[in-house]
Write a structure and sequence with these properties.
- With 265 residues, the chain is mostly helical.
- The radius of gyration is 18 Å and the shape is globular.
- The longest helix is centred in the C-terminal third of the chain and has 22 residues.
- The chain has 13 helices and no strands.
- α2 crosses α13.
- It has two domains: 167 residues, no CATH class; 84 residues, DnaJ domain (Helix Hairpins, Orthogonal Bundle).
């Protein structure tokens, strides 16, 4: 079994993953957040040795973890199965590759599955890439929420995965809370009340304990990353530009809300 997926151009890998996120997410995050996170994959693997091996490790860990999280509450729902199948389809896997992904998903569901052991290679490949680890958890959260809810058991497994990946508990809590009550991962409704302050922080990808300087840096970085001209230069299709504008509006709104609460300009 090859440890790569031949036939798919390297520069499309991130965008393929992004398509999966766009499929699961609606509204403000939608396809553009998928494209953005997908771009993280491209950038992350380019700076690591053994690029193809890194991709293989990433996807093996991903499908195994998806199965493990889905089974956490005792039953894998049809929506969760369809979400995993959608990812396989978006990756354009060959028959052999699809069987590998299914095996990983099934292994993750088994009672004797050890998530620490399965994630160890991924941890080793991403020692200096916390952004890739966070993106990994974002995909798992999307898969867990495919049936419109994240159970307590699923959340416990996700928290354990975050611990293994050294993702701060406060950041994970913000990611979870953002999905409750239609936070920054849902479509904005003009004229409605502002998002809760905690969700504003989650929208910028920072914890509430972040310093003013960290808030400003996170805001500027996101605005640069979502600038339509930059996205076009990265090869994203024109139809994603409206999503980019939505995301920039969300980022600006979150930043203004945080500025107001802290009293800085």
């Amino acid at each position: 079994m090859s440890d790569t997926f031949p036939g798919i151009p390297r520069h499309w890998w991130g965008k393929i993953i992004g398509a999966f996120l766009g499929l699961l997410r609606g509204g403000l995050s939608g396809a553009i957040l998928g494209g953005f996170i997908g771009h993280f994959i491209d950038r992350a693997v380019q700076g690591l040795s053994g690029t193809h091996s890194t991709r293989h490790v990433f996807f093996r860990a991903l499908f195994s973890a998806l199965g493990h999280v889905s089974k956490a509450d005792g039953r894998v729902t049809q929506a969760e199965i369809e979400a995993a199948e959608a990812l396989m389809q978006r990756l354009q896997l060959t028959d052999d590759e699809r069987q590998m992904a299914i095996r990983c998903f099934e292994q993750g569901k088994s009672r004797d599955f050890r998530i620490e052991s399965e994630l160890r290679p991924f941890v080793q490949h991403t020692m200096i890439r916390p952004d890739l680890r966070q993106m990994f958890v974002e995909i798992l959260l999307d898969g867990a929420a495919a049936d419109a809810t994240i159970s307590g058991a699923e959340q416990a497994v996700l928290a354990r995965i975050c611990s293994i990946l050294h993702i701060p508990a406060e950041l994970f809590a913000a990611m979870i809370n953002a999905r409750r009550g239609g936070g920054p991962y849902r479509r904005a409704q003009p004229g409605k009340r502002q998002m809760p302050l905690q969700q504003a922080y989650a929208s910028l990808g920072i914890a509430e304990s972040a310093s003013d300087a960290e808030v400003k840096r996170a805001y500027r970085k996101l605005v640069r990353q979502y600038h339509p001209d930059k996205l076009v230069s990265q090869g994203l299709p024109e139809e994603m530009m409206e999503k980019a504008k939505d995301r920039v509006r969300e980022i600006n709104g979150a930043y203004e809300q945080i500025k107001s609460s802290r009293g800085f300009k």
